[in-house]
Amino acid sequence: MPGALKQWPAWPEFTEGKSEPDPTGELIQYKKEIIAIYGEAAIRSSWLKVCKELEKVTDDISEKGTAAIPEVSYTELFELSPERKQVLKDTGCFVVRGVVSESLASEWFDNLKAYVADNKPNIGGWPSETPFVLRLYWSPTQLAARSHPHQLRLQRELNSWWHDSPTNPTMSPEPLSYADAVRIRPPGVPFFGLGPHVDAGSLCRWADPSYRKVYDHIFSGEPEKHDCYDLETRKDAKQAHFRGGAHSTVLRAFQGWTALTSAGKQEGSLLLYPNVKTAIAYMLLRPFFTAPASEKEIMDASKWTLDTDNGWFPGTWKQDSQRASPTSHPHLRLKECMVNIPAMRPGDGIFWHTDMLHAVETDHLGKHDSSVAYIAATPTTEANNAYMKRQAAAFMNGGKVPEDFTPGNVDHEGEFKGYVGEAGILNGEAGRRAAGIVGL
Protein backbone atom coordinates (compact mmCIF):
# COMPACT_ATOMS: atom_id res chain seq x y z
CA MET A 1 0.00 0.00 0.00
CA PRO A 2 2.31 2.79 -1.20
CA GLY A 3 1.32 5.99 0.55
CA ALA A 4 -0.61 4.43 3.45
CA LEU A 5 0.61 5.07 6.98
CA LYS A 6 3.01 2.45 8.29
CA GLN A 7 1.72 3.02 11.80
CA TRP A 8 -1.64 4.57 12.65
CA PRO A 9 -1.11 7.65 14.86
CA ALA A 10 -2.56 8.02 18.34
CA TRP A 11 -5.53 9.99 17.09
CA PRO A 12 -8.68 9.68 19.24
CA GLU A 13 -11.18 6.90 18.63
CA PHE A 14 -14.77 8.12 18.67
CA THR A 15 -16.54 5.49 20.70
CA GLU A 16 -20.02 6.12 22.11
CA GLY A 17 -19.94 8.87 24.69
CA LYS A 18 -17.10 10.72 22.95
CA SER A 19 -19.16 13.24 21.00
CA GLU A 20 -21.55 16.14 21.46
CA PRO A 21 -23.66 15.45 24.59
CA ASP A 22 -27.42 15.36 24.15
CA PRO A 23 -29.03 16.11 27.52
CA THR A 24 -32.17 17.66 26.00
CA GLY A 25 -32.74 15.17 23.18
CA GLU A 26 -31.89 17.79 20.54
CA LEU A 27 -29.67 15.43 18.54
CA ILE A 28 -32.21 12.60 18.63
CA GLN A 29 -34.74 15.05 17.23
CA TYR A 30 -32.54 15.78 14.21
CA LYS A 31 -32.47 12.08 13.40
CA LYS A 32 -36.22 11.77 13.83
CA GLU A 33 -36.82 14.75 11.54
CA ILE A 34 -34.77 13.12 8.79
CA ILE A 35 -36.53 9.78 9.25
CA ALA A 36 -39.91 11.53 9.13
CA ILE A 37 -39.03 13.15 5.80
CA TYR A 38 -37.29 10.27 4.04
CA GLY A 39 -38.43 7.12 5.84
CA GLU A 40 -36.55 4.26 7.46
CA ALA A 41 -36.59 2.14 4.30
CA ALA A 42 -34.77 4.83 2.30
CA ILE A 43 -32.12 5.32 4.97
CA ARG A 44 -31.48 1.58 5.23
CA SER A 45 -31.39 1.18 1.44
CA SER A 46 -28.79 3.92 1.15
CA TRP A 47 -26.74 2.40 3.95
CA LEU A 48 -26.54 -0.97 2.24
CA LYS A 49 -25.76 0.58 -1.16
CA VAL A 50 -23.05 2.86 0.21
CA CYS A 51 -21.35 0.15 2.26
CA LYS A 52 -21.36 -2.12 -0.79
CA GLU A 53 -19.82 0.60 -2.94
CA LEU A 54 -17.21 1.25 -0.25
CA GLU A 55 -15.95 -2.30 -0.68
CA LYS A 56 -14.84 -1.40 -4.22
CA VAL A 57 -13.70 2.10 -3.31
CA THR A 58 -11.52 0.99 -0.41
CA ASP A 59 -10.01 -1.91 -2.36
CA ASP A 60 -9.02 0.52 -5.10
CA ILE A 61 -7.54 3.16 -2.78
CA SER A 62 -5.65 0.64 -0.65
CA GLU A 63 -4.10 -0.86 -3.78
CA LYS A 64 -3.11 2.45 -5.38
CA GLY A 65 -2.13 4.44 -2.29
CA THR A 66 -0.72 7.85 -3.19
CA ALA A 67 -1.20 7.06 -6.88
CA ALA A 68 -4.96 7.37 -6.31
CA ILE A 69 -4.45 11.15 -6.14
CA PRO A 70 -4.23 12.57 -9.68
CA GLU A 71 -1.52 15.03 -10.73
CA VAL A 72 -1.70 17.61 -13.50
CA SER A 73 0.44 20.56 -14.48
CA TYR A 74 -0.91 24.08 -14.27
CA THR A 75 -1.11 24.24 -18.07
CA GLU A 76 -2.77 20.83 -18.38
CA LEU A 77 -5.54 21.82 -15.97
CA PHE A 78 -7.07 24.08 -18.63
CA GLU A 79 -6.77 21.49 -21.41
CA LEU A 80 -8.35 18.46 -19.73
CA SER A 81 -10.49 16.15 -21.80
CA PRO A 82 -14.03 15.69 -20.43
CA GLU A 83 -13.06 12.17 -19.37
CA ARG A 84 -9.94 13.29 -17.51
CA LYS A 85 -11.77 16.15 -15.82
CA GLN A 86 -14.43 13.71 -14.64
CA VAL A 87 -11.73 11.54 -13.05
CA LEU A 88 -10.48 14.54 -11.08
CA LYS A 89 -14.01 15.48 -10.05
CA ASP A 90 -14.89 11.93 -9.01
CA THR A 91 -11.70 11.61 -6.97
CA GLY A 92 -12.29 15.03 -5.47
CA CYS A 93 -8.62 15.87 -5.00
CA PHE A 94 -5.54 16.45 -7.15
CA VAL A 95 -2.12 18.06 -7.28
CA VAL A 96 -1.53 20.97 -9.65
CA ARG A 97 2.16 21.23 -10.45
CA GLY A 98 3.72 24.64 -10.97
CA VAL A 99 0.90 26.97 -10.01
CA VAL A 100 3.73 29.48 -9.67
CA SER A 101 7.43 29.01 -10.32
CA GLU A 102 9.59 27.34 -7.72
CA SER A 103 11.80 30.41 -7.50
CA LEU A 104 8.85 32.73 -6.83
CA ALA A 105 7.39 30.44 -4.16
CA SER A 106 10.81 30.22 -2.50
CA GLU A 107 11.09 34.00 -2.58
CA TRP A 108 7.67 34.26 -0.95
CA PHE A 109 8.80 31.88 1.78
CA ASP A 110 11.95 33.89 2.48
CA ASN A 111 9.85 37.05 2.73
CA LEU A 112 7.39 35.31 5.05
CA LYS A 113 10.17 34.12 7.35
CA ALA A 114 11.51 37.67 7.59
CA TYR A 115 8.02 39.06 8.28
CA VAL A 116 7.48 36.51 11.05
CA ALA A 117 10.90 37.17 12.59
CA ASP A 118 10.33 40.93 12.60
CA ASN A 119 6.93 40.65 14.28
CA LYS A 120 7.22 37.47 16.33
CA PRO A 121 6.08 38.88 19.71
CA ASN A 122 2.77 39.92 18.15
CA ILE A 123 2.05 36.73 16.20
CA GLY A 124 0.04 33.97 17.82
CA GLY A 125 -0.45 30.49 16.47
CA TRP A 126 -1.81 27.03 16.94
CA PRO A 127 -1.27 24.69 18.72
CA SER A 128 -0.38 26.95 21.62
CA GLU A 129 2.52 24.79 22.87
CA THR A 130 4.33 24.71 19.52
CA PRO A 131 2.60 27.24 17.27
CA PHE A 132 3.24 26.72 13.59
CA VAL A 133 -0.18 27.48 12.10
CA LEU A 134 0.36 31.22 12.33
CA ARG A 135 -2.47 33.67 12.89
CA LEU A 136 -1.36 35.83 10.02
CA TYR A 137 -3.74 36.84 7.24
CA TRP A 138 -2.29 39.92 5.55
CA SER A 139 1.45 39.33 5.15
CA PRO A 140 2.90 40.41 1.77
CA THR A 141 3.47 36.72 0.96
CA GLN A 142 -0.17 35.78 1.54
CA LEU A 143 -1.51 38.77 -0.38
CA ALA A 144 0.73 37.98 -3.34
CA ALA A 145 0.03 34.23 -3.30
CA ARG A 146 -3.75 34.77 -3.22
CA SER A 147 -3.84 37.35 -5.99
CA HIS A 148 -1.24 35.98 -8.41
CA PRO A 149 -2.79 35.73 -11.92
CA HIS A 150 -2.15 31.97 -12.08
CA GLN A 151 -3.87 31.44 -8.75
CA LEU A 152 -6.98 33.37 -9.75
CA ARG A 153 -7.18 31.67 -13.14
CA LEU A 154 -6.88 28.25 -11.50
CA GLN A 155 -9.57 29.08 -8.95
CA ARG A 156 -11.92 30.32 -11.65
CA GLU A 157 -11.50 27.01 -13.47
CA LEU A 158 -12.14 24.92 -10.35
CA ASN A 159 -15.17 27.00 -9.38
CA SER A 160 -16.60 26.41 -12.85
CA TRP A 161 -16.75 22.67 -12.15
CA TRP A 162 -19.72 23.40 -9.90
CA HIS A 163 -23.11 24.22 -11.41
CA ASP A 164 -25.98 26.38 -10.24
CA SER A 165 -29.68 26.40 -11.09
CA PRO A 166 -30.08 26.58 -14.89
CA THR A 167 -33.14 28.82 -14.54
CA ASN A 168 -32.15 31.09 -11.64
CA PRO A 169 -28.36 31.10 -11.26
CA THR A 170 -26.91 33.38 -8.59
CA MET A 171 -23.40 31.92 -8.53
CA SER A 172 -20.39 32.96 -10.58
CA PRO A 173 -17.08 31.10 -10.90
CA GLU A 174 -15.26 34.40 -10.43
CA PRO A 175 -12.85 33.73 -7.55
CA LEU A 176 -12.92 35.41 -4.16
CA SER A 177 -9.70 35.62 -2.15
CA TYR A 178 -10.76 34.17 1.19
CA ALA A 179 -8.13 35.18 3.73
CA ASP A 180 -6.80 32.20 5.67
CA ALA A 181 -3.71 31.49 7.74
CA VAL A 182 -0.22 30.31 6.84
CA ARG A 183 1.89 27.47 8.19
CA ILE A 184 5.59 27.16 8.95
CA ARG A 185 6.12 23.76 10.55
CA PRO A 186 9.61 22.98 11.83
CA PRO A 187 10.95 19.42 11.79
CA GLY A 188 10.95 17.25 14.87
CA VAL A 189 7.74 18.52 16.46
CA PRO A 190 4.92 15.93 16.61
CA PHE A 191 1.36 17.14 16.07
CA PHE A 192 -1.82 15.15 16.76
CA GLY A 193 -4.40 17.92 16.39
CA LEU A 194 -5.76 17.20 12.91
CA GLY A 195 -6.73 13.57 12.46
CA PRO A 196 -9.24 12.51 9.78
CA HIS A 197 -11.93 15.17 9.45
CA VAL A 198 -14.23 17.00 7.05
CA ASP A 199 -14.54 20.78 7.25
CA ALA A 200 -17.47 23.07 6.38
CA GLY A 201 -19.39 22.23 9.53
CA SER A 202 -20.31 19.04 11.35
CA LEU A 203 -23.69 18.62 13.06
CA CYS A 204 -25.13 21.33 10.82
CA ARG A 205 -25.16 18.85 7.91
CA TRP A 206 -28.03 17.09 9.70
CA ALA A 207 -29.48 19.98 11.72
CA ASP A 208 -29.76 22.79 9.17
CA PRO A 209 -32.62 22.04 6.73
CA SER A 210 -30.89 23.89 3.88
CA TYR A 211 -27.65 21.98 4.42
CA ARG A 212 -29.50 18.68 4.83
CA LYS A 213 -31.13 19.31 1.44
CA VAL A 214 -27.68 19.13 -0.22
CA TYR A 215 -27.67 15.40 0.57
CA ASP A 216 -31.26 14.74 -0.44
CA HIS A 217 -30.45 11.76 -2.67
CA ILE A 218 -28.34 10.16 0.06
CA PHE A 219 -31.20 10.28 2.56
CA SER A 220 -33.73 9.31 -0.14
CA GLY A 221 -32.26 5.88 -0.82
CA GLU A 222 -30.53 6.97 -4.04
CA PRO A 223 -26.94 7.80 -3.03
CA GLU A 224 -25.72 7.00 -6.54
CA LYS A 225 -27.55 10.14 -7.74
CA HIS A 226 -25.80 12.49 -5.31
CA ASP A 227 -24.04 15.28 -7.22
CA CYS A 228 -21.09 16.63 -5.26
CA TYR A 229 -20.90 19.68 -7.53
CA ASP A 230 -24.51 20.88 -7.35
CA LEU A 231 -24.40 24.43 -6.05
CA GLU A 232 -28.13 25.14 -6.35
CA THR A 233 -28.81 23.98 -2.79
CA ARG A 234 -25.25 24.08 -1.46
CA LYS A 235 -24.94 27.85 -1.80
CA ASP A 236 -27.66 28.31 0.85
CA ALA A 237 -26.30 25.78 3.36
CA LYS A 238 -25.38 27.28 6.71
CA GLN A 239 -21.93 25.88 7.45
CA ALA A 240 -21.70 28.06 10.55
CA HIS A 241 -25.20 27.13 11.78
CA PHE A 242 -23.40 26.36 15.04
CA ARG A 243 -20.66 28.92 15.55
CA GLY A 244 -17.18 27.55 16.15
CA GLY A 245 -13.56 28.30 15.40
CA ALA A 246 -13.32 25.34 13.02
CA HIS A 247 -16.16 26.49 10.74
CA SER A 248 -15.72 28.78 7.75
CA THR A 249 -18.61 31.05 6.91
CA VAL A 250 -17.85 30.89 3.19
CA LEU A 251 -18.29 27.94 0.86
CA ARG A 252 -14.89 26.85 -0.42
CA ALA A 253 -15.50 24.79 -3.55
CA PHE A 254 -12.06 23.29 -3.06
CA GLN A 255 -9.81 23.74 -0.08
CA GLY A 256 -6.18 24.15 -0.96
CA TRP A 257 -2.55 24.31 0.08
CA THR A 258 -0.02 26.23 -1.98
CA ALA A 259 3.45 24.91 -1.14
CA LEU A 260 6.08 27.49 -0.22
CA THR A 261 8.67 24.78 0.47
CA SER A 262 9.11 21.17 -0.51
CA ALA A 263 7.42 18.49 1.60
CA GLY A 264 7.05 14.75 1.19
CA LYS A 265 5.88 11.78 3.18
CA GLN A 266 6.65 12.06 6.91
CA GLU A 267 7.52 15.72 6.48
CA GLY A 268 4.38 17.16 8.04
CA SER A 269 2.40 16.80 4.85
CA LEU A 270 -1.25 16.11 4.09
CA LEU A 271 -3.25 12.87 4.07
CA LEU A 272 -6.37 12.56 1.93
CA TYR A 273 -9.16 10.04 1.47
CA PRO A 274 -9.29 10.15 -2.36
CA ASN A 275 -13.01 9.65 -2.79
CA VAL A 276 -15.64 12.25 -2.04
CA LYS A 277 -19.07 10.95 -3.08
CA THR A 278 -19.22 7.59 -1.31
CA ALA A 279 -17.23 8.63 1.75
CA ILE A 280 -19.43 11.63 2.57
CA ALA A 281 -22.55 9.52 2.02
CA TYR A 282 -21.27 6.97 4.54
CA MET A 283 -20.47 9.64 7.12
CA LEU A 284 -23.95 11.12 6.81
CA LEU A 285 -25.68 7.74 7.21
CA ARG A 286 -23.44 6.36 9.95
CA PRO A 287 -25.22 8.04 12.94
CA PHE A 288 -28.46 6.22 12.13
CA PHE A 289 -27.01 2.75 12.71
CA THR A 290 -25.73 0.74 15.66
CA ALA A 291 -22.97 -1.80 15.17
CA PRO A 292 -23.57 -5.52 15.79
CA ALA A 293 -22.33 -6.93 19.08
CA SER A 294 -19.93 -9.35 17.41
CA GLU A 295 -16.72 -7.83 16.04
CA LYS A 296 -16.73 -10.53 13.37
CA GLU A 297 -19.86 -8.96 11.89
CA ILE A 298 -18.74 -5.31 11.98
CA MET A 299 -18.00 -5.13 8.25
CA ASP A 300 -21.33 -6.74 7.32
CA ALA A 301 -23.59 -3.72 6.79
CA SER A 302 -26.72 -5.88 6.89
CA LYS A 303 -25.99 -6.72 10.54
CA TRP A 304 -26.16 -3.09 11.62
CA THR A 305 -29.40 -1.91 13.30
CA LEU A 306 -31.27 1.27 12.43
CA ASP A 307 -31.49 3.24 15.68
CA THR A 308 -33.17 6.63 15.90
CA ASP A 309 -33.46 6.70 19.69
CA ASN A 310 -29.77 7.33 20.26
CA GLY A 311 -28.36 10.86 20.25
CA TRP A 312 -24.85 9.76 19.33
CA PHE A 313 -23.36 11.31 16.20
CA PRO A 314 -19.91 9.65 15.96
CA GLY A 315 -17.06 12.14 15.82
CA THR A 316 -19.42 15.10 15.95
CA TRP A 317 -19.20 18.25 18.06
CA LYS A 318 -21.16 21.37 17.17
CA GLN A 319 -18.14 23.67 17.24
CA ASP A 320 -15.64 21.35 15.57
CA SER A 321 -15.10 19.83 12.15
CA GLN A 322 -16.66 16.44 11.47
CA ARG A 323 -14.25 13.77 12.75
CA ALA A 324 -13.81 10.11 11.85
CA SER A 325 -11.88 7.18 13.29
CA PRO A 326 -11.39 3.48 12.47
CA THR A 327 -13.63 2.47 15.38
CA SER A 328 -16.49 4.85 14.67
CA HIS A 329 -16.41 4.57 10.85
CA PRO A 330 -15.08 1.06 10.14
CA HIS A 331 -16.30 0.67 6.55
CA LEU A 332 -14.07 3.56 5.45
CA ARG A 333 -10.98 1.45 6.26
CA LEU A 334 -9.18 4.63 7.24
CA LYS A 335 -5.91 2.93 8.17
CA GLU A 336 -5.53 1.74 4.60
CA CYS A 337 -7.21 4.59 2.75
CA MET A 338 -5.93 7.82 4.32
CA VAL A 339 -2.98 8.22 1.97
CA ASN A 340 -0.13 10.67 1.64
CA ILE A 341 -0.39 13.27 -1.06
CA PRO A 342 2.44 13.19 -3.65
CA ALA A 343 5.64 14.98 -2.70
CA MET A 344 5.24 18.73 -3.15
CA ARG A 345 7.69 21.27 -4.49
CA PRO A 346 7.58 25.03 -3.94
CA GLY A 347 4.88 26.49 -6.16
CA ASP A 348 2.75 23.32 -6.37
CA GLY A 349 -0.84 23.25 -5.16
CA ILE A 350 -3.01 20.50 -3.70
CA PHE A 351 -6.78 20.92 -3.83
CA TRP A 352 -9.58 18.86 -2.30
CA HIS A 353 -13.38 19.01 -2.35
CA THR A 354 -15.04 20.73 0.58
CA ASP A 355 -16.66 17.39 1.62
CA MET A 356 -13.40 15.41 1.58
CA LEU A 357 -11.83 13.63 4.53
CA HIS A 358 -8.31 14.85 5.21
CA ALA A 359 -5.70 14.85 7.97
CA VAL A 360 -2.25 16.25 8.72
CA GLU A 361 0.70 13.98 9.34
CA THR A 362 1.65 13.72 13.00
CA ASP A 363 5.38 13.58 12.25
CA HIS A 364 7.76 15.88 10.45
CA LEU A 365 10.99 13.92 10.12
CA GLY A 366 12.47 16.10 7.40
CA LYS A 367 15.39 18.49 7.70
CA HIS A 368 13.77 21.84 6.94
CA ASP A 369 10.61 23.83 7.58
CA SER A 370 7.46 22.71 5.80
CA SER A 371 5.46 25.76 4.79
CA VAL A 372 2.15 26.22 2.99
CA ALA A 373 -0.29 29.03 2.40
CA TYR A 374 -3.92 28.01 2.85
CA ILE A 375 -5.55 29.18 -0.39
CA ALA A 376 -8.93 27.81 -1.43
CA ALA A 377 -11.03 28.08 -4.59
CA THR A 378 -13.93 30.22 -3.40
CA PRO A 379 -16.78 30.97 -5.85
CA THR A 380 -18.91 34.09 -5.95
CA THR A 381 -22.23 33.47 -4.20
CA GLU A 382 -24.48 35.86 -2.32
CA ALA A 383 -23.36 34.52 1.06
CA ASN A 384 -19.69 34.50 0.07
CA ASN A 385 -19.96 38.04 -1.28
CA ALA A 386 -21.48 39.26 1.97
CA TYR A 387 -18.63 37.74 3.96
CA MET A 388 -16.02 39.17 1.59
CA LYS A 389 -17.35 42.69 2.11
CA ARG A 390 -16.81 42.28 5.84
CA GLN A 391 -13.40 40.71 5.27
CA ALA A 392 -12.35 43.57 2.99
CA ALA A 393 -13.54 46.13 5.53
CA ALA A 394 -11.41 44.46 8.21
CA PHE A 395 -8.41 44.46 5.87
CA MET A 396 -8.79 48.12 4.95
CA ASN A 397 -9.26 49.03 8.62
CA GLY A 398 -5.68 48.37 9.63
CA GLY A 399 -5.34 44.73 8.64
CA LYS A 400 -7.73 43.41 11.26
CA VAL A 401 -8.33 39.68 11.71
CA PRO A 402 -11.13 38.29 9.49
CA GLU A 403 -14.23 37.31 11.45
CA ASP A 404 -13.84 33.57 10.80
CA PHE A 405 -10.59 33.52 12.76
CA THR A 406 -9.12 34.08 16.20
CA PRO A 407 -6.67 36.98 16.64
CA GLY A 408 -3.06 36.32 17.47
CA ASN A 409 -1.41 38.39 20.19
CA VAL A 410 -2.84 41.51 18.55
CA ASP A 411 -6.01 41.86 16.48
CA HIS A 412 -4.49 43.70 13.52
CA GLU A 413 -1.36 43.65 11.38
CA GLY A 414 -1.45 47.25 10.20
CA GLU A 415 1.44 48.28 12.45
CA PHE A 416 3.60 45.23 11.76
CA LYS A 417 7.04 45.83 10.31
CA GLY A 418 6.87 45.02 6.60
CA TYR A 419 3.07 45.37 6.36
CA VAL A 420 2.17 46.80 2.95
CA GLY A 421 -1.61 46.54 2.96
CA GLU A 422 -3.45 47.03 -0.31
CA ALA A 423 -0.18 47.59 -2.19
CA GLY A 424 0.61 43.89 -1.73
CA ILE A 425 -2.26 42.73 -3.93
CA LEU A 426 -1.11 41.57 -7.36
CA ASN A 427 -2.97 41.42 -10.68
CA GLY A 428 -4.42 44.92 -10.67
CA GLU A 429 -8.19 45.27 -10.80
CA ALA A 430 -8.73 41.48 -10.89
CA GLY A 431 -6.76 41.00 -7.69
CA ARG A 432 -8.57 43.86 -5.97
CA ARG A 433 -11.94 42.53 -7.07
CA ALA A 434 -11.15 39.05 -5.75
CA ALA A 435 -10.11 40.61 -2.44
CA GLY A 436 -13.48 42.34 -2.20
CA ILE A 437 -12.01 45.83 -2.29
CA VAL A 438 -13.56 47.05 -5.54
CA GLY A 439 -16.76 48.90 -4.74
CA LEU A 440 -16.14 48.85 -0.99
Automatic annotation (TrEMBL):
Annotated stretches, region: Disordered: 1-22
Pfam entry (one): Gig2-like
PANTHER family the UniProt entry points to: DUF1479 DOMAIN PROTEIN (AFU_ORTHOLOGUE AFUA_5G09280), UNCHARACTERIZED PROTEIN YBIU-RELATED
Protein name: DUF1479-domain-containing protein
Organism: Lachnellula suecica
Source species taxonomy: Eukaryota, Fungi, Dikarya, Ascomycota, Pezizomycotina
Protein's gene: ybiU
